[in-house]
Design brief:
Strand order of the largest sheet: 11-10-9-12-13
Largest sheet: 5 strands, parallel
CATH class of the largest domain: Alpha Beta
Strand content: 5-15%
Keywords: Iron, Lyase
Protein name: Phosphomevalonate dehydratase large subunit-like domain-containing protein
Low-confidence stretches: 1-15
Structural class: alpha/beta
Radius of gyration: 22 Å
Organism: Microbulbifer agarilyticus
Number of helices: 18
Number of domains: 3
CATH architecture of the largest domain: 2-Layer Sandwich
CATH topology of the largest domain: Aconitase, domain 3
Mean pLDDT: 95
Shape: globular
Number of strands: 13
Pfam family, one: AcnX
GO molecular function: lyase activity
Length: 454
């Protein structure tokens, strides 16, 4: 397995030079004036942090940001108090993001999922500052909770800038999808840094924002005999590449030459798995993603390594997905679908498949509750287009929720109370939930039992 080198984030940047003096990122006169207080003391403080960040990573300059930011500052836990306090001061000073922005989903849903005494107590104890973080976002430029989602790029939310746009995003799966499927230019920002950049309207250029930093060190050759399990191959790629950029061949036939609303979920599933099993912030898919369509195999660095994923390798990786339930033989109690958040086409497909399977088996209700994680505006789209189907889904025990599934799975005592199944490799990587492909998951939903050969 490749080990993090620490160099890829500053590839080709000034920090590669050996110098006795600390590196200083060049600044324009306007930027120097901002650092000196021309736009107020709060902006000067933010600039000081931003410049120090750029210096640390050898950025060649600050670049103007376009599109819209995306923030992963979504949870109001006590350890977030200092960061929330910083941005509260910024908001009180009247500063705002350069554009309206999107935010990750809240960590709980008191209406559809956590509407029970145990969970409500945990919310009260664990998220005492949720009101504070939400109020910060209202003032900085993201007031509407209906648009909260880790999949900010779906059409109903619309945070999908043009290829080549410099943005400052956080949330590993959003950064991964944005850089790769949209062709954006952003680094994997830590929570808070993306908001700081959004308020200044600039970001230090280094790493995945540079041409050199977007080159691939790995050629991933997918040779499965049929459509791959996207979560499994994503996990394989993340484990192999860690933080390096992979160039993936053998997948173009599953996309028809372009990314659409109907097939984007495949890249979402694969990409989020690369980011959660490793730290991949960008991948290229030959003939599919913007950079790969333009530059083709010129994106491969000299001396690149090759990793072949065939049927045997896919099954080997799947075999490493251990059963981490506290009671190994317990029957499944809940099904979690949508991490990252579901697209419209995903909830439409799952609603159709589950209700048809239940009807075929002479049942009206699923054997276990099914949680479909998506933004409220995505759910509303389905209600508008297919109201009768939504009615059948509710009768079947399928629930829509706009919360974060990983946050829910991380609640105190979750693993003792919930024996969940999912089709999300990302959720599996971060929790005790067991992973199954869609066809097996559908059978579990209908029967309440895990097939012996699964």
């Amino acid at each position: 397995m490749s080990k993090p080198s620490g160099k890829s984030v500053v590839a080709g940047g000034p920090a590669d030079k050996t110098d006795s003096k600390p590196y200083q990122m060049p600044l324009t006169q306007e930027e120097q004036d901002m650092l000196g207080g021309s736009k107020g003391p709060e902006m000067a403080k933010l600039m000081k942090i931003l410049v120090a960040h750029g210096n640390a990573f050898g950025a060649d300059k600050l670049v103007e940001l376009g599109g819209r930011p995306h923030s992963s500052m979504y949870f109001g836990t006590e350890y977030m108090a200092s960061l929330i306090g910083i941005f509260d001061e910024v908001a009180k000073a009247g500063l705002k993001s350069y554009a309206p922005y999107t935010v990750n989903p809240r960590p709980y849903d008191a209406y559809n999922v956590n509407n029970n005494p145990t969970d409500m107590q945990l919310i009260y104890e664990g998220y005492a500052r949720q009101r504070d973080v939400d109020w910060v976002h209202v003032r900085l430029g993201s007031p509407d909770l209906n648009y909260r989602s880790c999949a900010c790029y779906v059409p109903e939310i619309g945070n999908a800038p043009k290829p080549g746009t410099y943005v400052a995003w956080a949330e590993s799966s959003a950064v991964n999808y944005g850089n790769s499927a949209l062709g954006l230019r952003t680094n994997r920002n830590a929570t808070g840094m993306e908001l700081l950049c959004a308020i200044v309207g600039k970001a230090p250029r280094f790493g995945l924002m540079t041409d050199e930093g977007r080159k691939a060190k790995w050629l991933i050759d997918v040779k499965t005999s049929k459509e791959p399990d996207w979560g499994v191959i994503g996990t394989a790629i993340g484990r192999k590449c860690v933080e390096d950029v992979p160039f993936i061949a053998g997948l173009d036939s599953y996309f028809g030459g372009k990314i659409t609303n109907e097939n984007m979920h495949k890249l979402k599933a694969m990409g989020s798995a690369t980011a959660s099993s490793g730290a991949v912030g960008l991948y290229h898919v030959e003939g599919v993603t913007p950079d790969a369509q333009q530059q083709e195999r010129k994106l491969l660095l000299d001396g690149y390594q090759t990793y072949v994923i065939d049927d045997a390798e896919q099954e080997r990786i799947r075999g490493t997905f251990e059963n981490q339930w506290t009671k190994k033989d317990h029957a499944p109690t809940h099904c979690f679908i949508g991490c990252p958040h579901n697209t419209y086409d995903e909830i439409l497909q799952w609603g159709t498949n589950v209700t048809k399977a239940l009807e075929k088996n002479g049942k009206n209700e699923a054997a276990i509750p099914v949680y479909l994680f998506c933004a409220n505006v995505v759910r509303d789209h389905l209600v508008e287009e297919h109201p009768e189907l939504v009615g059948r889904m509710k009768q079947a025990g399928m629930k829509f929720t706009n919360m974060c599934s990983v946050s829910y799975a991380g609640m105190k005592g979750f693993s003792e109370r919930v024996f969940g199944v999912t089709n999300s490799a990302k959720t599996r990587n971060y929790s005790t939930l067991r992973y199954f492909p869609d066809d097996v998951l559908l059978e579990i939903i209908v029967t309440g039992e895990i097939p012996k050969n699964a």
